[in-house]
Amino acid sequence: MPRTTDGDGTPVPRRLLAAATRLFAERGYDRTSVQEIVEAAGVTKGALYHYFGSKDDLLHEVYARVLRVQQERLDAFADAEAPVEERLRGAAADVVVTTIDNLDDASIFFRSMHHLSPEKNKQVRAERRRYHERFRALIEEGQEAGVFSKETPADLVVDYHFGSVHHLSTWYRPDGPLTQQEVADHLADLLLRALRP
């Protein structure tokens, strides 16, 4: 995205995304108008349409920006020179931490994904599938090496872990008894215990 700034020096696309994320989280995607987004961002409708073709594009970018970060980080864990158990544990904990860091984005997306156009919905599903397949490949690598049990199919193990991740926005609270890293460590440990031979 272009780095054009407006007002306070923050790039306009970032301001629009921040405003949209806050409003979508507070009011819901369907109850937030384009006018409310541009007013909250302090820009014009013309500026919004310069960077995003529609409100639908904003919703897609809310999710895509987090997934891009998570994919980059997963690729780094998967490609590292370390034992597969260590790489999987790092990746499993990291997706929890990055989801908690972006809880509004995660909750908006899972509440509002059905509002995406069919084309964008398909695109998002393909992006998620790519992430899950890379994660599953780590599990399969460990299973083939005899480090992880083959008793539970790798697909089911992936669904188990990401089911927990996708529900974080429904219960995790920053002021709760566990830090995000503690939650990440517990969920990663549960995953590895489920794979123990």
From TrEMBL:
Domain HTH tetR-type, first and last residues per copy: 10-70
Signal peptide: none
PANTHER family xref list: HTH-TYPE TRANSCRIPTIONAL REGULATOR RUTR (PTHR30055), HTH-TYPE TRANSCRIPTIONAL REPRESSOR KSTR2 (PTHR30055:SF175)
Segments traversing the membrane: none
Name this protein carries in UniProt: TetR/AcrR family transcriptional regulator
Gene Ontology terms describing biological process: negative regulation of DNA-templated transcription
Organism: Streptomyces apricus
DNA-binding residue intervals: 33-52
Domain of life of the native organism: Bacteria
Alphabetical UniProt keywords: DNA-binding, Repressor, Transcription, Transcription regulation
